[in-house]
Amino acid sequence: MAQLDGPRFGPRAGGPARQVVVLLHGLGADGRDLIDLAPVWAEALPHAAFVAPDAPDACDMGPCGRQWFSLQDRRPAVMEAGARAALPGLEAFLEAELAQAGLPPSALALAGFSQGCMMALFAGLRRAEAPAALLGYSGALLAPESLATELRARPPVLLVHGEVDDIVPVRATRAAESALRAAGVPVRALVRPGLAHAIDEAGLAAGLEALTAGFASSPGA
């Protein structure tokens, strides 16, 4: 199993980190695609360390970039199997980041875009101890039917999606919101009018609000 790594930022205030925010990129990108969110969020989270790991595999749908799993076949069962295969490597990375910082699991937050959103939700809901927050942008909830038996944590979840997204339709977030609410997971969904497959200023502001609230209510974070 290849060890994950990627670009890093912070803590802006210097000194040891008090929180760890892991940013998971989408298909065909890499960690550089999301690490630019860190300086924006670090203004209000000066003691957070941000890291955006590169996904483990080369993208099989383009000339460059990485993928958490193949999307050549988008049948739900196939995508679920891909996420399950990628999960151990991501979990090992999360545990190593917390251990290196000397922080408890409650000091962790996950944010993901598109396929990275799928992985953030898949991993975060199955951790033994709830992360401080889960942020999912322009993505989907894989294997919602498995939550009844596999849900181990109920962290606060923010879902943000563009109303005119033609890559991952906004109905994916509406379905995720319904499934999470039914499973007792605290969830907020923000649908952005006129936005395609992207993150806008309102989404960034909502994400910062979710992170600060999550860390403020997490013991030891």
TrEMBL record:
Keywords: Hydrolase. The lineage of its organism: Bacteria, Pseudomonadati, Pseudomonadota, Alphaproteobacteria, Acetobacterales. It comes from the Bacteria. It comes from Roseicella aquatilis. This is Phospholipase. SUPFAM superfamilies: alpha/beta-Hydrolases. The keyword Repressor does not apply. Pfam families: Abhydrolase_2. Residues 15-206 form the Phospholipase/carboxylesterase/thioesterase domain. GO terms for molecular function: hydrolase activity.
